[in-house]
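dumping these here so i dont lose them again. two proteins, back to back, each one seq then structure tokens. dont judge the mess
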Amino acid sequence: MHRHLVDRVAAKDAIIMVWDSWGMAGNEKDFYLVSNPSDTISSPDAASRWAKQHADNTCEIGDVDRMKRGLYIVTTYNCGLQ
């Protein structure tokens, strides 16, 4: 469904889009579809280092799910990457 968007940024490190968001005040979770061509952000620690370099905001990374090589869903808690 979002193939054109993924193709446009697949060759660079980027936050592609907000995938989902839910929660109540003080317990929000935001999910981002992220492109990482070097395929190096498979853990929350690695994703946190990546976010410090590629996002305007540094947030606690709660989880990282690898969708396929270079494409991840990154979950933040109480903080948005964009």
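---- next one ----
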Amino acid sequence: MLPLRRQLALSCLGMLLIGMPARAQQSAASANAQAGEAYRINPGDELEVYVWGEERLQRGVRVLPDGTIAFPLVGQLMAQGKLPSELEAAISSALASQYRGEVPQVTVSVTSPAGMQFSVLGRVNSPGSFATGRYINILEALSMAGGGTEFADLGSVTIIRKNGSQLQVLRANVAPLLRKGVRDEDLARANIVRVEAGDTIIVP
């Protein structure tokens, strides 16, 4: 059974989409499909690493704030931004010197995607921090925050994103998708951004 917050979020998103013109629904669905791509590892995630036939190399690890993990016989490995399959390959390569023959199969699974967190501030009904186990788009993020308040400017949503040591400011315009009688030119002005881990979303 889904957690209550997740149920409410999905319900709110459904309410946002109800009444949209068909073209607007297609636009939102397309953005959601893009958001559903394979999950990449983030700092704070908990991983389960298993090397077949090696009990000493089976353990849970947490991705450190710098994006690395520590693993026996390997040391520090960069995990941030990698798919689980890519981290499996990196661990296998690092273990190669420890085996005369083929390295046993390595399996990496994300047991708790706690690193996929973002915050929504400003004129929304339930501001705060949220965590998801998948990528979502700006419409879903606003839905999780209860949607915009009466005077929210959904045409000028700001996303503050950290890229390394730099801050990037993005703009999102979802207002055209929430109006009745949406025209093609209105849809062209809409900007449905995918939310990344650590994003701060501000609704003026």
